[in-house]
Amino acid sequence: xxxxxxxxxxxxxxxQAKRLVAERRMVQLSTGDMLxxxxxxxxxxxxxxxxxxxxxxxxxxxIVIALIEETLPQAExxxxxxxxxxxxxxxxxxxxDALLAGRGSQIDVVIRLVVDDAxxxxxxxxxxxEEGRSDDNPEAFAVRLDAYNRQTAPLLPxxxxxxxxxxxxxxxxxxxxxxxxxxxxxxxxxxAAAR
Length: 195
Ligand code: AMP
What we know:
Layout: E1 3-6, H1 13-23, E2 27-30, H2 31-41, H3 44-55, H4 61-77, E3 81-84, H5 90-102, E4 109-114, H6 117-131, H7 138-152, H8 155-161, E5 165-169, H9 174-187, H10 189-194
Parallel strand pairs: 1-3, 1-4, 2-3, 4-5
Helix pairs in contact: 2-3, 4-5
The chain binds adenosine monophosphate.
Adenosine monophosphate binds near residues 32, 56, 58 and 88.
């Protein structure tokens, strides 16, 4: 089963993805984590994307699509993939559909965590204090939120039209959100397709 965890930065995608990895035999594919790893390793790719990430802008579709393509075989050996922070543009979503179709696979369900902007700002301010992630500062976060609204939100009608979009309340506590996700996954594809 392949799942997209969808939502703005700080919606809780990473937290929920890690729990699903621990509880189900699935692989978390986070392009943000992959890009941060590239930066820490000092690779040419890492150096190329560092300034873009620090500003809070999206890196190019080509870069993230290539990263995802490399990791798909690994996900197939597990129980499936949880896409976290990818796709973020319609071009990325189309590329993902084509890559999966080429491997006889598909996205089964897209779970959107709905969180309002004020709560996102509070969460990010706390995370910036606790973890000091460079793109969590208020200026970069404003750019990230803007990128989400302008470039990523158009994916909602894209996945709704495919009958794959399920929306859950991301304002609830971590355990409650986890329970809702389990309910969706337990009900399986039929539920998503019925929407
Ligand atoms: P994240 O950890 O998912 O919030 O990603 C951190 C940063 O990495 C983003 O602000 C972007 O600069 C970059 N990034 C991660 N995933 C993508 C993606 N799918 N498309 C473009 N840029 C991305």
